[in-house]
């Protein structure tokens, strides 16, 4: 056992690096490290389950390349789109391949990395408050980071550590939960709050259709509605101080990504509903070019014309290659056909694998929660195509881990059968 742990350390470290590097917000560095890791850990054999998932993203890239030959996009944007669209594929490979090196330490590794990232995040916030006088929500997020899906996953694993067969003492479990939970909260990201609720309900089994689950989900929706009504009636200010800025974002959340009419001359309306504006302009641009464009997209290198310059990140742009909405990004590049393939990749997460191992059932539930969350995440924050996201690694990791326990389960059944004979 000691030898196995020693051999696994280098792969655990590599896994931690791949998980953390997107937090540095340097996509070129992320792409380089992920690509090298995927290449040097390549496997000889892959199972049907992971191949199906990988194939979805290969088909999306292939479709975008095929359509490109009918277009005249600039080579720079074509190459950049390739690196963007291949990211989930590489992430799946990394997670799947590295998990094979330390399956028995998988969930413990997730918790340790989540705890490590949380410590760094809290230090960044402390540093920002002390040295940069960061007191507003926007300042804290600017210096500390805008979201951390991985920490939410780590928190869920800690909260359900017994079901994931983690031998954590009560003291350690409380410590990890407090540190990781507080760090995840301090991103003040609406998507992370939604993610936590979805994963928590999934692990509790409330997404299985029965009287109990329907009652719980309906109750959560009612409480959410009441909470939103209270916040809406509080009428938080757009540029309010402290938590008021977060409350304002929650207030506009149901409208922000779904609005169909936006007044470009009203800067408040435009800024508050910019995500919807991207969607509107994308649908108009793609559909305007006819049925071919609608069904097959505009290929690699395609950009959306926003009709005006918009300050995004640290650049003033009129033409954008990727949008906040992951579904719309795929629609732009590959049309309705690419969207259909992308939805298949999410659907595959809902397919449960039957097993006598309780931990396999927990991984199944985690996949269900991930699938539900990806629908929300893609609509507002690009899902697995987000340049700062590492969920694809975790998804590949869980695929491998489920297969590992399934294989162990089948071997145990075979041994029991042989004994019986």
TrEMBL record:
Transmembrane segments: 9-25, 54-70, 82-99, 111-134, 173-202, 214-232, 330-350, 362-385
Top-rank taxon, per record: Bacteria
Keywords: Membrane, Transmembrane, Transmembrane helix
Name this protein carries in UniProt: O-antigen ligase domain-containing protein
